[in-house]
Every structure is written in C-alpha cells, then in structure tokens.
Amino acid sequence: MTGTPTERPRTGRELVARLAREELRPAWRVLAVAITCMVVVALTTGATAWLLDPAIKSIFLDRDPDMLILIPAAVIVVSMVKAVASYGQAMLMSSLGQRIVSNLQIRMFEAIMRADLAWLNANHSGRVVSSFVNDAIHVRDAASRIIAGLVKEALTVVVLAGVMFYQDWQLACIALFVLVPAVGMVKRLSRRTRKASQRTFEETGTLSTLVSEALTGMRIVRAYGQEAHETEKATASIERRLAHLVKAIRARTASTPFTEALTGIGIAAAIAYAGWKGQSGAMELNEFVSFIAAMMMAYQPVRALAGLQTQLQEGLAAAERLYAIIDLAPTIKDAPDASPLEAVQGQIRFDGVSFSYGGEGPPALAEVTLDIPAGTTAALVGPSGAGKSTVLNLVPRFYDATAGAVRIDGTDVRAATLASLRGAIALVAQEPFLFDDTIRANIAYGRPGASEAEIVQAARDAAAHDFIEGLPQGYDTRVGEAGLKLSGGQRQRIAIARAMLKNAPILLLDEATSALDTESERQVQAALRRLMRGRTTLVIAHRLSTVIDADRIFVLDGGRVAEQGTHAELLALDGLYARLYQTQLSDDTDTAGTPAPEEPRAAARG
C-alpha cells in the first residue's frame, strides 16, 4: 500500500520491540500473571521428569513401601498444579491476543478515518479490508507465540536441561550439542518464510479487491456476460496465493523434521554413552531413566522453539503492512494555530486557486478566482474534466489548494479547524451514500442527537415522509447496503433530509438530480429549493435548465473560469455557456420527438 508513514519499522527486531512497547507493556499485569503460570508449567514439567529418579530407586530398587504412596501422590499434585497453570496461561494469553487484535483494528480504523482522500483513492478498499481483518490476526498469533516460546517453551527446556545436567553433565552436553546446527537452519528457513508471507499477504489483498469489485459491479458483470472472465481472474489470484502459501508452509514445516532428525541423533548418542557408563557401573538405572525422560520431554518444547522463528516471520510480515496504515500521516489536518469558524455567514471566495491531483501532471485548476456572497446560489457548469468537482472538493478541505486560498467569510479554510469547517457545510451528492442502517439513523447522521420530531420534519421538507410512512417499518426500515433497497429518488430525498437536519449555512450540491427520472427529479428539485433557502449554495449541474435561476453561474473550461454571470448574461455573450445550453436544448427537443444520440449531452458533463 502507498502512504505517508510517520514511523515504519523494517527489521524484525524493530517490529518486535514496537509490538512489545505499544501492545504488551500496557497489559503488563495480565502478562505477568500469564508468565508466572508459564514458569509453573516449566517447573512442574521438570519435576515430573525428576520424580522418576526416586520412583525407580525407592520403589523398584529399594522396595520402600512408604514411597509407594508418597511418590504417586507427589506426581498427582504436580500434575494438578501443571494443569491449573496451563489453563491459566492459555486463557490469559488468548484474552491478551484478542485484546491486541482489537487495539490494532481500532488504531487502523482511526488511521483510515483520518487518512487523506488521495490515499483512500489510491488504495482499493479490498486491500484495506484484507489488512484490517487478516494482518491483525497474524500479529496476534505472532505475539502469542513469542511470549509462549520465549517463556514457557524456553524455560521448560532450561528446567529439563537442568535435570539432565543434575543426572550427568557429560551426557547432557552430548544430548544438547545437536541443537547447534538447528539454530543456523532455523534462521535460514525464517528468511524464506517472511518473504513468502509478504507475497501471500499482498496476493490476499489482490484477491479481496477482485471479490469486492465483482460484488459491487455484479450488474455490469452479468450485463456484459463476463462471469467467466471474473472467475478466471479470481482463479489466477487464488492460484498465485496458493503458491506463496505453499512456499511459506514448506519453509515453516522443514524445521520440524530437521529437529526430529537431530533429536534422534542426540537420543541415540545419549543411549550409547549411558549404556557404556551403565555397563561399567558408573551410572545407575534410576539416573538413566530420569535423564532419558527429561530428554524426551524436552523434545516438544525444542520442536516448538525451532518452529518459532519461521512462524514469527509471518506475523512480522503482517505487522509491517499493518503499521503502514497505522502510521499514515494525513496532510489534511488542523494547523497548530487553527481556530474554529464562528457565526458562519457563508461567503465563499477562491483567490487565485490552483490545484493538481498528486501534485503532478496538468493542473485540475489554474488560478481560479470565484466570489460567492453569503446566502446566494452559484452554479458550476462546463464540459467534462473542466474542474467543477475539484472546486467543490476544495471547500470542505477534502483536498488543499496547491496555490492560492479558499476562504469562508474571509478566513482561509486551512486556518480553521476541520470540525468547525465541515460542521458549517452540508453535502448532497449525485449518488447519495446511505449506511446499512435504519432510515431514521441515516437522516440523523449529521445530527445524532436530533429529536424524532426534527427527523420527521426534515423528511417532510425533503418530500420523503410519505414514502417512508408507506414502508412496512416506517422510519425503522433498514435501507440495505448503500441504500440499494430504495429507489434512486428515495435515496436522494433521504440524503436531502439529512442535509436539512444538519441545517448548515453552506450547501454543496454535486449533480444532485442528474441521475434521476423526470418524476423523481421533480420531487427532488422541489425539496432542494426548500433546502437552499437562506443558505450559500454551490451546485454542480449537468442539466443547465436546473440552474437558470442561479444568482451566479461560473463556466469552467480546462481548469479555468471561462465565463461568469447570470443565465441571461451568459446567453448574451454567445460563448461556451450558450453553446452548451443550445446543445442541451436541441438534445431535449430531439428526445421529445424522436430519440437522439447521447453524445451531445455528454459534452456538457464534467
């Protein structure tokens, strides 16, 4: 993913240190109890192996009747303590792991909410969702394995090694010598695992993108008969992901048989050496059994430790992607000395504004100057790509001007707090977005504390109350994903009701009726007229007939203001506006009689 991170650790050590600092240190009490339980598990495991020594000596060799009761009782006590400690550490670590996932997902969501629109547009939502869901889980698993490996498994090996050295230090050296080559092998495999894991996560993001696009664009897919094509793309992505997964699995699982082979060599060497000592009388049977038991019991934690590095690399690869999102540094943010806008009247002024998307390529706007008095309606018209949407986006600071200044009541929008700036603006878009919630919640989105009466009144003003009341659950009706359970006109009127309830002094209308049928447009236009009363309104219009009554019309062409004036004044100029208007008028006349091509109308879109 692309972005502007403030901190993005690259090495495994840096990533582990950051996870410990930010996620584990705040939960140190829970972690301390879990580690204590792990210490108990390690000690009781060693005690079980050591108890075989007195068991064989006292029960089988010395035939002490008291030991026949005491040693089994001791084994039971040790086993019960180990069971309780194992349960405790497992529960605590699982809870801690889930808390880590929750914390990381909250931080990621906060970062996404703060992220610039430029970053959001550059990164497909499927990839972001993939990282949000999958990467955090891999980080959780890595954190849990680090703690369990470095504490429980490692300490268990140390305790069992202590039992082995207690019984025979020379034999212990022989048995443990096999671990030396295992360390080098594990390091080599861990590098392969991290590389394969990184590619797996990238391909998972690609697959999520394909699935998301296929679901969103299903009507187009079916209309053009491209089901097989989309299936082929998804299949290819799945196969690539599978190949990377297999590479990671191959590297991860290679450590286990390698460790098993070395362990077998160590056991064989220990048995041969112990047998030689036993035949010469230098080692008793009880000592040998206790030693072998400790060595065999150490096998499982050694194998876990051998696989720890390779498993850890998967989590570190996920952590790197995750922190790339968490560390995003938005450029659209409050200035250190920003102050809130107060008593906004709604005057909008562009002073020589220029803007380029991404700071490169031809400018979307070049030295644009606009003056929109408070309480008036201004329209932006012009051909496609003229810069109309860019002008609209600069008012609420979705982007910042590359040069010049956008001012509200004389205040540069960059000098105002974002909360106060956007609180003074309501937006109604061409394709209104509704959340998969109730109609009531969608209307109240701009004012969560609004009363029922205020919500209903906003719906009435937006000509939405009647159709809402006609729904089975009225205002409690859920609108479905993006509001798709409603018609286009119904969605638009709910969006207008949302803007009415917000009651902001500045209103931005982004082609709010261009996608509607005639009847829906009539109802929405009536609602818009009520919404626009007493507000400063900046409207983008494709249908020039809808902005005839605007106080000021700005005609944009190539990122510049080509013409400005009222409808009558612009027609009298006989320039670009007049040509666009005549083209649409002719097109509408043709449509009223015989169907006419759509190309002329497209010339007025932007």
In the CATH classification, which architecture of the largest domain applies? Up-down Bundle
CATH superfamily of the largest domain: ABC transporter type 1, transmembrane domain
Order of neighbouring strands in the sheet with most strands = 6-7-8-3-9-10
Rounded to the nearest angstrom, the radius of gyration is 35 Å
Helix fraction?
55-70%
Number of domain modules: 3
Residue stretches low in confidence (pLDDT < 50, at least 5 long) are 2-7, 592-606
Membrane topology: Multi-pass membrane protein
GO molecular function: ABC-type oligopeptide transporter activity; ATP binding; ATP hydrolysis activity
Domain ABC transporter: 348-583
Region (Disordered): 587-606
Describe the structure.
Residues 348-583 form the ABC transporter domain. Residues 32-314 form the ABC transmembrane type-1 domain. This is ABC transporter ATP-binding protein/permease. With 606 residues, this protein is an alpha/beta fold. The protein has three domains: 12-326, Up-down Bundle (ABC transporter transmembrane region fold), CATH 1.20.1560; 346-420 and 507-519 and 535-606, P-loop containing nucleotide triphosphate hydrolases (Rossmann fold, 3-Layer(aba) Sandwich), CATH 3.40.50; 425-503, P-loop containing nucleotide triphosphate hydrolases (Rossmann fold). Helix content is 63%, strand content 9%. It has 21 helices and ten strands. Strand 7 (506-510), helix 18 (518-532) and strand 8 (536-540) form a beta-alpha-beta unit. Helix 2 (28-61) packs antiparallel against helix 3 (67-114), helix 5 packs antiparallel against helix 10 and helix 7 crosses helix 11 (299-326). The longest helix has 53 residues, at 227-279. It is elongated. The two termini are 30 Å apart. Residues 2-7 and 592-606 have low confidence and may be disordered.
